[in-house]
Amino acid sequence: MTVEQILSEFLLSKEDLEEVMRRMRREMERGLRVETHNEASVKMLPTYVRSTPEGSEVGDFLALDLGGTNFRVMLVKVGEDEERGWKVETKHHMYSIPEDTMTGTAEMLFDYIAGCISDFLDKHNLKHKKLPLGFTFSFPVRHEDLDKGILLNWTKGFKASGAEGNNVVGLLRDAIKRRGDFEMDVVAMVNDTVATMISCYYEDHSCEVGMIVGTGCNACYMEEMRKVELVEGEEGRMCVNTEWGAFGDNGELEDFRLEYDRVIDETSLNPGHQL
Fold this sequence. Notes:
Blueprint: H1 3-8, H2 14-32, E1 45-46, E2 59-66, E3 70-81, E4 85-96, H3 99-102, H4 106-123, E5 132-137, E6 141-145, E7 148-151, H5 168-179, E8 185-190, H6 192-201, E9 209-213, E10 217-224, E11 237-241, H7 259-266
Parallel strand pairs: 2-5, 5-8
Antiparallel strand pairs: 1-11, 2-3, 3-4, 6-7, 9-10, 10-11
Helix pairs in contact: 4-5
């Protein structure tokens, strides 16, 4: 078999792509509805982010980004700019997460995160400040408020025990408290797609969709509240985290999968998920 013949197996016709699109849209609609949400592969999770930035967000903030093998801590300074409305300056440091920390316990993982924060604060002489902190946490979470979210399941090679089913912000606050050498005001936890959408809004006020193509692939968008049945109220809008990386978990893509897909899936940490 030639290389061209093997590669041809990966090509989808326009009709195939349109069929995948129809199936994904059906799962997205099922994810938004109360009666079908639990069975839907695309969960369409409410984020409790009810608007895009409106101009009052100025000051110093600490940002955390956990979503892959690297963990990032960032100092964000937001000020007013006469021409563009906002002026954003950042300083950041990247920390590599050891594999045994990714697959150990939740306490190990969040203690490591707290240690990275402490190191960053030392480097920038910020230990004396209690800054508002935003946590970008790029895993499936069921939000109960902007600063409270339950981890549904790990993805992307993470397997830390004792985290699934627990409040992620609570795990972070506990780790900071155990360390005891700094204080932070954890005000929000969002998905990386949401953080991308909001940060892009500073450049383009028409931005209402965020998409990530990296270790995983996911998207969010602003939805009318009347369609977000998992949250009470019909007025206004809310950002929805699609978690479309799980599309296919219920067999929707079975007739498109190849032998290579099956081998990779069977040897992964979470077989049958994030196909």
